Amino acid sequence: MTTVAQVKQAVKPLLQRNPDLALVGRLVVVKPVHHILRGIYIDRSSDPLEFVPTWSVIVMCESHRDFTYRWGGRVYGPPGGWNINDPDFPVLMCEAIEREALLPMRSIGTIDDFVKFTSKERFPDTYLDLYQMRKIFVDVARGDLQSAGSICDYMKTDRARRWHLPDMQERYDRVTKELCPLITANDRGGLARLLHKYEEGSVRAMKLEKYWEPTPFPIELQR
């Protein structure tokens, strides 16, 4: 398997040409990190000589332990993949990342940008509205408590029973026991504090403290 040291060497041309990028382990992030994390993860492969770069954007206040792929895509290489034995691969891979990942990622700076990006037209099988337990964090951050309240109502129905599965229970409890009571009470200040807590937890878990700049959520800027 490829190592973190090999990743550092491979992405050197990318970091040299793009001062707004930073490397954290295997993750190349766009600086600064606010509410949206924009990153390219240089993953391993079953082939010990191959890199698998995949880019994605995520909302940090969802509470993340690590980088997740849902809204983005893989940066494919030539036949045989991005192989470390190819002397040209670092430059070619970095150029492909700039072309296929950095251009769309740099256009996503705000939560509203994220909502537009995760549309049904772009992601017909994984658009944001399909994932209510993710969307509720976005709704709250934007101050759309009516939409967030509808999701809370849905969580009380039998149709939401799937969220009681062991691997989803933590998220279900966070939404139903922490977010929804504050949504029902229209406690915007309490919701903002909770989102900041979740976001800070994601930053710590992913070791992004050096690049994170805490900023207000839209819900805090509304009258």
Sum this structure up briefly.
The protein has 223 residues and is an alpha+beta fold. Helix content is 44%, strand content 14%. Strands 1, 2, 3, 4, 5 and 6 form a six-stranded antiparallel beta sheet that branches.
What is the strand and helix layout of this fold?
Layout: H1 4-10, H2 12-17, E1 21-24, E2 27-30, E3 36-43, E4 50-59, E5 72-74, E6 82-83, H3 89-106, H4 111-117, H5 132-142, H6 145-155, H7 169-184, H8 188-205, H9 218-221
Description:
With 223 residues, the chain is an alpha+beta fold. It folds into two domains: 109 residues, no CATH class; 91 residues, no CATH class. The protein is 44% helix and 14% strand. The protein contains nine helices and six strands, in the order H-H-E-E-E-E-E-E-H-H-H-H-H-H-H. Strands 1, 2, 3, 4, 5 and 6 form a six-stranded antiparallel beta sheet that branches. Helix 6 packs across helix 7 and helix 7 packs antiparallel against helix 8. The longest helix has 18 residues. It is elongated and about 60 Å long. The model has no long low-confidence stretch (mean pLDDT 92).
